[in-house]
Amino acid sequence: MSADTGSGPGTEAQRLFIGGSWVAPDDGHYEVTDPATEGLVGWAPEASRDQVRAAAAAAREAFGPWSRTPPEERAAVLGRAADVIQRRFLPYAELAAAESGATTATARGMQVGVGAARFRRYARVEPAEQPLPPQINEAGPFGGAAVMGALAVRQPVGVVTCITSYNNPWANPAGKIAPALAMGNTVVVKPAPQDPLSVYRMAEALEAAGVPPGVLNVVSGSRAEAGEAAVDCEDVDMVSFTGSTAVGRRIAEVCGRGMKRQLMELGGKGAAVVFDDADLGSAVSGIGTTYSFYSGQICTAPTRVIAQRGVYDRLVSELAAYAGRLTVGDPREPGTVVGPVISASHRDRVEAYVELGRKEGARVVAGGERPPYERGFYVAPTLLADCTADMRVVREEIFGPVVVVVPFDDEEEGIALANDSDYGLIDYVWSGDVARAFRVARRLRAGGVGINTVGRNMEAPFGGFKKSGVGRDVGSFALHAYSEVQSLVWPG
C-alpha cells in the first residue's frame, strides 16, 4: 500500500509503485503545490534513472504472463478498478482538484468521472481477430494452386511508457493505461510532475482490483531524468505521450533511433470557423465553455475564432460579454467557472502572450488584467479581437484562457485561414447551412471537426494532423493504437 492513502491532500510522502511494491524514491521528494492556494498538497517521489529502468524491467518480466492472460480476465481487472474508483470517488476528486486547480465540478465529472468511465469502457472485450476473404492462388514457384485463408490478429506491442499531461490527471492517464492493459501490454507511467499524486491513486485502485505485480508501474519526477529514462530504456517498446509539440518532437527522435512505436497527442490551436448564418448563441456558448472550464489548458479548445465579416462584430461583442460573465476564483466555490492555471510560471507565460498580442496590434475586448487575488495562479479570460493570421498569438499555442478572433470574407478564405496553422487537432464549423458545414469540415486539416457543436463522441478516433500528433486513440481506436497487427495465413 502507498504511504499516502488517498484520503486527502497534505498527508505523508508518496512512494513509487514498481513491480507490485510501494518503493521509497532514491532521490527524495518534491512538493506538489495547490495552484489555487499555493499551499502544499503533498510530497511526490523523485525517481532515479535506475528506478525507472527497474520499473521497465518489472514490466518486461510481467509482459509474458499478462499478454497470455485471457482477455476476459484482463477486462475483469479493469472493471474492478472502475468499481474501486467509484467507491473512493470523493477523496480522489478532492485530491485531483487540489493538485490540478480544477473546479469541484470538473474534478468530479471530467477528471475522476471520466477516468472511471474509461476503465469501464475497456472492461468490454472486443475481438482481436479479423477474418479476411479467401484468396485463390495460381500454381507457381511457391507451390500448387490453392485457396489461402487469412486472419489479421491484433497482438500487444509489449512494454508501453505512458507520459501524461497535467491538465487532466485522471482522464488522460486512464485513456492510456486502460486500453494498453486491455490489449495485454504492461505499462510504465510517468505522470506530469505538477499533479502526479492522482496517478498513484489510480495505481492503488488497480492494485486493489488484482492487477499482477509489474503489469502497472508508476514513477514520477520533477526533473527531466525520469521521463528521459522512461523513453530511452531498452525494455520499452512503445511510448504514448500527451503534451507539448516541442517535447513530443524530442521523444519522437529517441523513439526513432530505437524503432519504438509512438502515440503522440500534442499541441492544438483549434479553429472555430463561424459563418454569417451561424447560430451565434450556440457558437458563443461552445467556444466559451470549452476554453474556460480547464482555464484554457485544453488542447481541443477553439481558441482561434475565424469569423465571417457579416457576423464578426456581433460575435466579438457576445464573446466578450460571455467572458465577462465567467466567475474567476476559488475552484472549490460552487459558482466558480475559471480556476487557476497550473503554476506561477505558466501564468506568467499566458500573461506575456496577452501583452504580446497588444504589441502586435490586437484589441483587448475582455480580460487582459490579472484577477485581484493575493494567492493562486489566476488569469482572467481574455478576448483579443482584430487579429491577423501572422500574429504570434494567432499562430502559437497559448494554453490558457485566451481566445483570438480573425475576420474573413468568403468560404475559401475561411478555410485557408483555418488551415494556416502548424497544428491540426480539433477544429469547429458553425453554419446554418448543414451542407456547407460538412463541405468545409472535410477540407479542414484537423484530426477532428465539430459541426455546430463542441461535443465529443467518445468512440470517435482522436488525434491530430501536422504537429498536433501521430496516431489515434479513444474507443476501439485506442485498442488498435496499443497493438501490432499479425497476419496468419494457411491453405484452405
Automatic annotation (TrEMBL):
Residues 22-487 form the Aldehyde dehydrogenase domain. Transmembrane segments: none annotated. The keyword Magnesium does not apply. Keywords: Oxidoreductase. The keyword Oxidoreductase applies. GO terms for molecular function: oxidoreductase activity, acting on the aldehyde or oxo group of donors, NAD or NADP as acceptor. Pfam families: Aldedh. Belongs to the aldehyde dehydrogenase family. This is Aldehyde dehydrogenase family protein. It comes from Streptomyces fagopyri.
